[in-house]
Amino acid sequence: MEFPQLGQHCSAKGCNKLDFLPMKCDACSAILCKDHIKYDEHQCSSSYRKNVQIPVCPLCNQHVPYEYRDQSPDRAVSAHIDRDCRSRKREKVYANKCSVASCKQREAIPVNYVKTSSTNHQRNRKDDYALAKALQESERQELQRIRRNQTTSTAATANTSTSSTDNRSCCVQ
């Protein structure tokens, strides 16, 4: 048994589907099913009133007006960029030149080579030599400490073992 009073038929051309939850187009007021509710799917003649997209230029962040009604947003933005975009000039990514006179390499970040004088170089070598000597001395002292600990521990072990053998011989007699 059908219920002809319940639901409505889709008004899209070629559909005529009985829909129990029909939707009404807000532009043309046509009754449509869920498959045809979008403006493009039912060729809505009044969609220009509601379906308005205003593209924004990615360079200058300004709204871009359409030149004509059916123009795509991409073409409108492209035309704007070609003609009257007021974006700031783009900075070069590799604008930093190497600081060595003979080098023509460009870098993303500044690279500066500092030339050290010969006196600074000699002073650094002396500091390095003193540091190496101090390190050697501390390693030598550490080795001596370890050897001392090993000899005292073996001597203590030997003393305890001899005293225990002496006690045994004493007790056995």
TrEMBL record:
PANTHER family: ARSENITE INDUCUBLE RNA ASSOCIATED PROTEIN AIP-1-RELATED (PTHR14677), ZINC FINGER AN1-TYPE CONTAINING 2A-RELATED (PTHR14677:SF20). InterPro entries: AN1-like_Znf, Znf-C2H2_ZFAND2A/B, Znf_AN1. GO terms for biological process: proteasome-mediated ubiquitin-dependent protein catabolic process; protein targeting to ER. Keywords: Metal-binding, Repeat, Zinc, Zinc-finger. Residues 145-173 are annotated as: Disordered. SMART domains: ZnF_AN1. GO terms for molecular function: zinc ion binding. It comes from the Eukaryota. SUPFAM superfamilies: AN1-like Zinc finger. Residues 4-52 form the AN1-type domain. Residues 151-165 have a biased composition (Low complexity). GO terms for cellular component: endoplasmic reticulum. This is AN1-type domain-containing protein.
